[in-house]
């Protein structure tokens, strides 16, 4: 260990003045709180964004192919052709349609999104298994029914076995007319994704096609990818294959505004909470100024013994930087442990009125080491900058003035 670093480490471990020791402790605690808040807030935004993305993709696909003018004429042939594109895991026809669902105790109904899927797809993800696992689309009489989310079931005051009426718009002779059918609720699911649990209903694709009178055709094909990172190349290949007959979109495009907003919020949150770290550096400046004043005699003796001014400057630069490193590492450790505890025991969860705004019932706090590294770099750099003025002031002390009255 070189001499200035050794002296700085000794000052940090064993401060001789109680006031300086107290101010130094406050400076470390201020930095700990700022860094901890940054680690937790970044984990919050990262966890929220990743959890939202994961649940969106678990219930839907990465790419959507749909007819601009309505239903897809030859659905099986188009799905088969798309399924042969390199990078595509599977292509499944589905039926999407806005609908109105009513029950005996809720005659005014709720506007929902109706999705008809192939029951064989329920093995694709854990979320789809909760929605329509084996037998969950079949009622006691063996006839296909519908599955609805927990919060929607509460609004409708229904339970498995209850009857609901679904009304959809259908086109007949160039005009749109309502069409209604009564179905039995075969399953009430809970995915943790409020959008699904409160506004979506699922049924077999064949039942949805009969309800909409599409003649066995679907209006959308969902495309799952083997490697999501190749999405842009796969989209280009599908567009080249289908030409102008069909439109091709992906989940990023359909949710662009939401995820762009989340990125902006994360940046703003980093800046705002980063101000706590910045303000805490004023405590480091205060600690250094008081330490310089306390060690005035020692500085004078060191200079009179042949030590140069750069040595004095380095001592206090190292001292302030060590304070920053200790506070940063402690804040990171507390923040990471706090994130693990919150996620492990699901301490952050919401009721339906809050989940309706944030789309999810609970938020995992995901610690990304890239974010932690950026926070650590920011805190240490700010701490280093805070040492420049006090260390320069210490280096300008005249040895004669420092030891005159000693």
Give a quick summary of the entry:
The two termini are 30 Å apart. By secondary structure, the chain is an alpha+beta fold.
How would you explain this protein's 3D organization?
It is a single chain. With 406 residues, this protein is α+β, with helices and mostly antiparallel strands. It has 2 domains: 3-57 and 258-403, no CATH class; 71-218, no CATH class. It has 15 helices and 9 strands. A 6-stranded mixed beta barrel has the order 2-3-7-4-6-5, surrounded by 4 helices. The longest helix is centred in the N-terminal third of the chain and has 42 residues, at 18-59. The radius of gyration is 32 Å and the shape is elongated. It starts with a helix and ends with a helix. The mean pLDDT is 88.
């Amino acid at each position: 260990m070189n001499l200035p670093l050794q002296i700085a480490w000794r000052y940090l471990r064993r401060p001789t003045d109680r006031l300086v020791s107290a101010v130094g402790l406050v400076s470390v605690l201020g930095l700990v709180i700022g860094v901890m808040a940054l680690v937790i807030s970044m984990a919050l935004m990262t966890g929220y964004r990743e959890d939202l993305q994961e649940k969106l993709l678990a219930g839907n696909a990465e790419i959507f192919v749909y007819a601009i003018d309505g239903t897809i004429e030859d659905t099986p042939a188009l799905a088969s052709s798309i399924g042969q594109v390199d990078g595509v895991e599977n292509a499944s026809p589905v039926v999407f349609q806005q609908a109105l669902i009513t029950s005996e105790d809720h005659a005014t109904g709720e506007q929902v999104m109706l999705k008809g899927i192939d029951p064989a797809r329920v093995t694709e993800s854990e979320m789809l298994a909760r929605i329509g696992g084996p037998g969950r689309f079949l009622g006691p009489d063996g006839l296909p029914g519908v599955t609805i989310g927990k919060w929607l079931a509460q609004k409708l005051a229904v339970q498995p076995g209850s009857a609901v009426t679904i009304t959809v718009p259908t086109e007949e002779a160039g005009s749109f007319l309502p069409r209604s059918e009564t179905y039995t609720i075969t399953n009430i699911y809970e995915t943790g994704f409020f959008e699904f649990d409160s506004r979506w209903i699922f049924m077999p694709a064949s039942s949805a096609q009969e309800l909409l009178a599409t003649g066995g055709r679907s209006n959308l094909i969902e495309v799952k990818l083997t490697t999501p990172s190749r999405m842009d190349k796969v989209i280009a290949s599908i567009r080249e294959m289908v030409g102008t007959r069909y439109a091709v979109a992906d989940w990023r495009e359909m949710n662009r505004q939401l995820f762009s907003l989340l990125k902006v919020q994360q940046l703003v949150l980093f800046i705002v909470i980063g101000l706590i770290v910045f303000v805490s550096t004023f405590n480091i400046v205060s600690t250094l100024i008081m330490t310089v004043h306390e060690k005035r005699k020692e500085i004078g003796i060191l200079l009179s013994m042949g030590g140069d001014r750069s040595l004095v400057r380095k001592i206090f630069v190292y001292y302030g930087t060590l304070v920053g490193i200790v506070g940063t590492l402690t804040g990171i450790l507390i923040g990471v442990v706090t994130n693990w505890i919150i996620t492990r025991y699901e301490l952050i969860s919401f009721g339906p009125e809050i989940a309706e705004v944030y789309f999810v019932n609970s938020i995992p706090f995901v610690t990304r080491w890239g974010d932690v590294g950026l926070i650590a770099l920011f805190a240490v750099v700010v701490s280093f900058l805070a040492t420049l003025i006090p260390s320069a002031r210490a280096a300008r002390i005249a040895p004669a003035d420092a030891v005159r009255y000693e």
